[in-house]
Design brief:
Blueprint: H1 5-16, H2 18-29, E1 31-45, E2 51-60, E3 65-70, E4 81-87, E5 94-96, H3 99-122
Antiparallel strand pairs: 1-2, 1-4, 2-3, 4-5
Length: about 140
């Protein structure tokens, strides 16, 4: 089987970026939606001496009450309701039901492989790319 350059890079994209996206789609498929409440504002002493602030969100599962730390970059205050997604088998793996909270890490992790592949793919022939255009692989 021979692949042209475009097909080869599409295959590389699927191999290097696909697992990040597949994992998140599987996580979303197996997640349960519930509503939690901002329990209190927490603080953590960082290794270099700074103190960071985060929201502690509490929600109830079928058997337990679970808390987790969430980012501070949201206007919700103590006592506000927030939408939560969590895994039934692992309720501590919970996230706020916001695009940036669910897909943010996936986009960051897949960005570097995507950019490397994009730069190699669009490199002009004059720079003698690793895989010349119109080549059969």
């Amino acid at each position: 089987m021979q692949l042209n350059r475009t097909q080869f890079f599409l295959l590389l994209f699927i191999v290097f970026v696909g697992p990040f996206i597949d994992y998140k789609i599987l996580w979303l498929h197996n997640s349960i939606h519930t509503t939690g409440v901002v329990y209190f504002m927490g603080h953590t002493l960082e290794l270099h001496g700074d103190i960071s602030t985060h929201r502690v969100i509490m929600f109830k599962t079928e058997k337990n009450t679970v808390t987790f730390n969430a980012g501070i970059f949201d206007p919700s205050k103590t006592g506000d309701s927030v939408s939560i997604l969590y895994q039934k088998d692992n309720p501590s793996d919970a996230r706020e039901d916001l695009f940036s909270r669910i897909w943010g890490d996936t986009l960051v992790y897949s960005l570097l492989p995507f950019l490397v592949l994009l730069v190699i793919f669009i490199t002009p022939d004059s720079l003698d790319p690793l895989i010349p255009k119109k080549s059969i692989i």
